[in-house]
Each structure stands twice: as structure tokens, then as C-alpha cells.
Give the backbone structure.
Amino acid sequence: MKILEALCARLAWLLILMSLGGYALAGTPCAGPQRLCASVDTNTSAPAPLLAMLDPAIQPRPARPPPNEPAPPPPPSAVPIRIALLLPMRSATLATAAEAVRAGFMAGMERDGTGFKAEVVSTGDAPRDVLDAYARAAVASDIIVGPLARSAVAALADSDAVTRPTVVLSVPEGRTGVSRTTVPRGMLVVGLSIEDEARQVADWAAREHPHGRALILTGGAAWAQRAAGAFEGRWVQLGHTNQRFAVPSGEGGKAAIEELKQKLEIDPPDLLFAALDSTALRPVRALAAALPCYGGGPANPGRSAAPDVPGLDGVRLLDLPWIVLPDHPAVMVYPRPLNTEQPLDMDRLYALGIDAFRVARELALRDGAPFGVDGVTGRLDVVAGPGGQLQLQRVEAAVVVRGGAFEPVDKGR
């Protein structure tokens, strides 16, 4: 009781000093009679020296928001996060692809870009031009998205120029698979990869045919050879066997189809992997409609997947959700390209632009910590690899062509 009386007396004395001297307890001038410089009301905070004199059991409680009312968000930063979008807009061969990426990036930023500012940095094809543009962008930006060309990404990866968090839009030449992680610290590879896609198809086929023997059909194009090699490498790694069969284009393709027909009659495999486009795949399916057939994005019949298109019903495809699951909630929130008749490859690059912004945004907001995004190019997980280097893992959408539509294999996706 005596302690409480002494405390009250000291409080009264301090308040008298305040009213006489016109100063707050912390030593700052009072703003006038309309404002209390110190208070012991339980809904406000008293200055630290006064709180220190109070018994902990009777210290004021902080004010609480009304029930069912969320706490106010933290104030936005006054300075936006600066992103440089490094694209070959001046390239005679890549300008169209660069524009598709730019349009997708801006579509993503329009929806989720609060607190961010982007500048497009145009380059040509020469690696020196790209490296010089990167150096300038690194001075003026907080994070860099690009380059796009595989050769430019390889030149940047082989240099010591990476000084900012950098989201590159292609897999560097010669760094597919596991070796793609051997890039400078701070560089994150988000480019679409035909090899990664083929390996995922192999995993899918192995789950459905745990003891299956595959026949790999491949065309002569470089992308087809890369896809076939990636599927085969993963298929063998999983403990399966396979054979390859070349299906060339043109007149040679007709003779190959006859040879393939005989091969399938004599020694039918358990499944087919088609490193072919949809045009080359149709005559193959006419021979082997009963065999399970798997393919990647190039085998996608596209917007003309009508029920009367022969030979494609039942084909199992792995492709971007943006292409095969347009009604998925994670896809529908972004606008489609203005050119609705552009090739599917340009649609894929547009989708890559959307996800490139989203990945750059998360990198900036999470300060380099791992994260996951339900993206328009697939499920994206950015994880810490060896030595803490961040790596992106993409899982595309698995569908089956049914009656001119794409039926998702994973109903949740």
C-alpha cells in the first residue's frame, strides 16, 4: 500500500512539472494544449521512462483492432523495386520472340506489379552487346530478367558480370540437365527446356508402365534429337529398355512409315515416345492407335484439335498449363495475347514472360529464400541447391487428347 501511495505521488509530481514547463517526459517540446504529450490511459502508450516506473502487473495493454477486422497492411515502400527486362528487341531473328516475352511480362506486371518498376533494355544478337547492356542495367536496377537467347545466356554465365539477382530466360548452351545448375551465384534459369519436358514424360510413362519397353520415334530436327536423347537417358536411368526409330520428313518419311509398320507387327513395344510434331505423329498413330503414345509440347495439335482430326485421340501430352488448361484458375487471371492466331511457340513465350515476372517478384520480396508458384508454365518451385544456389524446378501439365479437347490427368491441376 505504501509503495502504491509513493508511486501515485511521484506520478502527480511529474504531471505538475509537465503542465508548468510545457515539455514532454522525453524532453521534446509539447505540441500545445490540443495534444497530450504523455498519457497513462490504457488505450495509449506511455513514454518508456514512465512505463519503467510502473509495476509490470498493471502496465497498460496495447490497443486491439475490433473483432473480425484484419490488421492494417504494412505501408508500401516509397521506392519501387527496379526490374530491367533485357531482351533482343533489335535482333532480326529474335525480335518477334522477344516481343512475345515482353508482352507476357507486362501482363504479369499489370496484375501483380504494385511496388515494382520495369524498364525494357533492348539488345542485338552479339554477346558483347548483351554483356554491355547487362552491365548498364546492373547499375540502374535491383533485379534483371534476361537475356533470352541461349548463346547470350551462356556468355553471361561464363562471365563474371552477374552482380544482381538475374532471371535468365533460356537454358545456357551446353548446360542442360544437372549441369544447368553450374551457373554463377545469383543467376536463376527459368527458360523452357525441351529436355526437361522429355524427362518428365519419361517419369510419367514409367509410372503408368513400370515394366514397359519404349520405342522412341524421332525426327531429324535438332530439337527432336535433344528430346529423344533426354527421354532415353531418363528412361534407362529408371531401369527400362528402349529402341529408337527415325521418322524423317518428306519422301523418306513415307518409306519409314512402311518400315515402322513391319517393325510394330514383328516386335511391338509397350509404349511409344514421339519426339515428333503433330503432323509427323498422325501417320504413326494410324499404324499404332492401340499403343499408348506419349509426347511433349511439339506433338500438341494446337487450336485445331477438332474431333475429326485423325490419329491424335488418346495421345498423352505434357505441355504448359497456359496451352492445355486455359480454364485453370491460375491461368484465367491473366489476359491472352492480342494476336490470338499467333503460333503456339509464341504463346509459350508469352506465358514464359508472365512467369518470369512472377519469379522475379518473389525473388525480390523473399530476399532470395525458396518459394513456390502455381504458374502458367507449370508448377514452379525455386529451391536451394548445392551451396545454397537457387534452382527452379518446373512441372508441366499432363493431359490426354479426348474428342478435340485436353483432359487433365491430374484432376487437381
Summary: Residues 13-75, 176-180 have pLDDT under 50 and may be disordered. The first strand starts at residue 81 and ends at 87.
